[in-house]
Each structure stands twice: as C-alpha cells, then as structure tokens.
Design a protein that fits this description.
This protein is an alpha/beta fold and 411 residues long. It has two domains: 177 residues, Rossmann fold (3-Layer(aba) Sandwich), CATH 3.40.50; 198 residues, 3-Layer(aba) Sandwich (Rossmann fold). Helices cover 36% and strands 15% of the residues. It is built from 14 helices and 14 strands. A six-stranded parallel β-sheet has the order 2-1-4-6-7-8, sandwiched between helices. β12, α11 and β13 form a beta-alpha-beta unit. The longest helix is centred in the C-terminal third of the chain and has 26 residues. It comes from Allorhizobium taibaishanense. Keywords: Transferase. GO terms for molecular function: transferase activity.
Length: 411
C-alpha cells in the first residue's frame, strides 16, 4: 500500500533490519577523512574534491562546496572539518574546532556556520578524540543552543587497517638505536628535536641513528615555527651529520620498511590535534616518542606503550606559546629552548629503556595491542555504516533533535 508521503515522492525511512540498506554517500578525497570513515563500506561512497574556500579567503576555511559533476543524488554527506553548503543532510567529523573560524567568532559567517550545525540537516557532529570534544564543548558553552549542539556530539577515534602479524624488527641488540621521523611540516612535528638528538649522541658517544623522512617545510607554512631570518640554518646543517639519514619523495612501501626497522618513531610535536602517524607507528609495533599535547596523551602511556614527554599547555591541551608573536627573537629563543629540552629528555629516556631489552620488547607489544584494540578498521566499518542509516532515519522521521545514539567505540 502506498502512503501519501510516497505518493508525494518524499524519502522514506529506511528499514535498518531488512537486508542492510545501501546508501549513496558523498565524501571528501583528502587524507584525514580516510582515518575517520569506513575503510570498507556496504554503502556506495563517492569521494569528490571540494572547493578549497580558504584559497579565496582564510576566513572561509570552515565551509565547503563539493565538485558537482557528474550530477548525482546523494542520500547524505560525510564531511570532515569543513561544513558543506548544500541542502543534502550531512554528518561531520572534526579534529579540533568546529566550526573552523579562527578570529571570526563574532562574525555573520561564524553564526551562519553554527546555524548549519544546529539545523536538522546536520545529523551528527563527530569529535575524533576527547581533546576535540572538550574544545567543542568549551567553544559553545555560552551558546543558548548549547544543549542542542551537545546532543548531536559524539566521539569516535580514527581507524586504519591493522594486520594480524608478528613484529618483524631484526634486532640483536648490537646495532645503533634507530629513531625515525616522518613529517613534512618539519619543525612543527618535531624534526628539529630528532636532529638535535643525533648531534648530542655524537658528542656523547651514544650509538644512535636518526632517519628523517621529510621535505623539510619550515617557516610561514606552519603556525608554530619561528619567523626569525636564518633561524633554521643551524638545523639544516645537522642534516649532514654522519648519524642522520635524510630521504624524501619515497614511496609509502619504503617509508613502512624504514618504520618497521626503527626502535622508536618521533612525534615531539608543537601542535598536532591527533597525529595519525602515531597510529601507523604503533600498528607496526613501533613505540612513539610524543609530546603531551592534543589527543596524544589519550592513547600513549608513558613507559608502557611509548614515551610521553611533558609540555606546558593551555586548558584545551595546546602548547602554551602557540599564540605568541612568532616574528620576535623572544619566541625564537623559547622555541630553541624547547627543542633542547625535548632532545635531552628523549635521549635520556631511550638510553635508559634500551638498557633493559625485556622492558623495551614489552613496550613494542603494548604499542601494537593499543593500536589493534583502539583503532582497528574492522570495528569502525560497522560503526560508520550503521550510523549512516540510523542518522538518516532520524532525519526522515523528524527525530533529529533527539540527539545521537551514543554507540560504543573500540578502546
């Protein structure tokens, strides 16, 4: 029997219990979305480029329009960070601030972006960490519509395919301690710390090798780097140290080979909301040397599955100097002191740990177990696939104001 809504051509609620419905989902193409989506989906997910509105103006970073061709009807959009300007219902995942509108919080555009999140077309707001959830709640705590926003909020960690495989490190305890750094934003991610570790190790006769996989991007393209002329000259010279190997533009298979033969990966970052490279390291049994900022303390536990170095942070977990004037000599001095502190602390921690091989091997196993139990794609596939159906059903039955179903997440 056909009801009045069906006769009018209105979308009907999905019967989630009958034969696993398949939806048509529009999603972005970029790297972060893959970590925050189903890796394998029963739905038809089409990845399309979006218009980089921030190229028009940095103030437009928080919104986006997807490539409209070829024309196709989608059931919903699963966006990341940028709010889609479209009549299609959407879910959005985010890594720190939502909406993204730095310095324009009192503007008409910011109010428009917030209204999009409050609209019935916004089916859910997915923080990728507790860190992101706290930032969202602090951002909107004085909004009269806070409770409506908070009902849409949920947390789901990123995911990746993690193989069931043994540790392949070939280590007889006779070679150097091998550290690997991977990241193009070199200084922001902590690459200078790795170079300084190598220099100190040479001075002290410590057998240490540092592999740098990076295009060495420093300066204005990063929001944490000193802008003093010549500041990075010293660190560039360290790339030629005999215990440093610098490679760039290598295939991912080669990067994984370097990583799997490392004792530690280095993410002594000055600013990272999550640090997807940390998951990739731990999934390959490689403990991470990380700074206690962003989401990293949520899953890296000091001397258990990695090394967590203290850092002075704000109440939302960002480095306390992130808003300082980067053009000043004072900021350059603060930055250099922090590199020195992190290098000395890291070197002391790893030399102590590597003296106890049993403790080190236990740390490798714990890193892998953490990755497998917390970030496995197999759990995430089911979570996202089911959530798409449930959220769209709420929308089609007019229940969007009732909030998200707080589905369990691994870990």
């Amino acid at each position: 029997m056909v009801n009045a809504d069906q006769q009018a051509g209105k979308p009907q609620p999905l019967n989630a219990a009958s034969d696993k419905p398949r939806l048509s989902v529009l999603a972005p193409t970029r790297y972060p979305w893959r970590f925050n989506s189903p890796r394998q989906s029963r739905h038809n997910i089409e990845n399309r480029d979006f218009v980089p509105m921030n190229y028009i103006s940095p103030k437009l970073e928080g919104i986006t329009v997807f490539q409209p061709l070829p024309p196709r009807r989608f059931d919903l959009i699963h966006a990341f960070n940028r709010i889609p300007v479209s009549p299609t219902p959407f879910l959005i995942s985010f890594e720190s601030h939502m909406p993204r509108g730095f310095g324009i919080e009192q503007s008409t555009l910011y109010r428009f972006m917030t209204s999009r999140l409050l609209s019935d077309r916004c089916l859910g707001i997915g923080a990728i960490s507790e860190h992101a959830r706290r930032i969202f709640q602090k951002t909107h705590r004085n909004n009269p519509a806070y409770e409506r926003l908070n009902r849409k909020l949920f947390m789901r960690y990123p995911n990746m395919v993690i193989e069931d495989r043994p540790d392949t490190l070939n280590d007889n305890g006779q070679g150097p301690i091998r550290i690997v750094f991977v990241g193009n934003h070199f200084a922001r991610k902590g690459g200078c710390v790795g170079l300084r570790m190598a220099e100190i190790a040479l001075e002290r006769g410590i057998d240490l090798q540092v592999d740098i996989v990076s295009s060495i991007e420093v300066g204005p393209m990063s929001w944490t780097d000193p802008l003093q002329p010549g500041y990075f000259d010293r660190y560039r010279q360290m790339l030629s140290l005999p215990n440093v190997r610098h490679v760039q533009n290598v295939p991912n298979s080669e990067v994984l080979k370097i990583l799997r033969n490392a004792h530690f990966s280095l993410l002594t970052t000055f600013c990272d909301t999550f640090g997807f490279s940390a998951i990739e390291s731990m999934a390959n049994y490689v403990p991470v040397i990380a700074t206690a900022q962003g989401a990293l303390p949520e899953f890296i536990k000091h001397r258990q599955n990695g090394l967590m170095l203290p850092m002075e942070t704000t109440d939302i977990g960002e480095w306390k100097h992130i808003a300082d004037d980067r053009t000043t000599p004072e900021f350059a001095e603060v930055h250099a002191r922090e590199i020195e502190r992190l290098a000395e602390t890291s070197l002391a921690e790893i030399t102590t740990l590597m003296a106890d091989r049993n403790a080190y091997q236990a740390m490798r196993r714990a890193a892998y177990v953490t990755a497998k139990s917390t970030f496995s794609a197999s759990d995430a596939n089911e979570f996202w696939d089911d959530l798409y159906v449930e959220a769209l059903n709420r929308y089609r039955t007019g229940q969007t104001s009732s909030g998200m179903a707080q589905k369990p997440f691994s870990g």
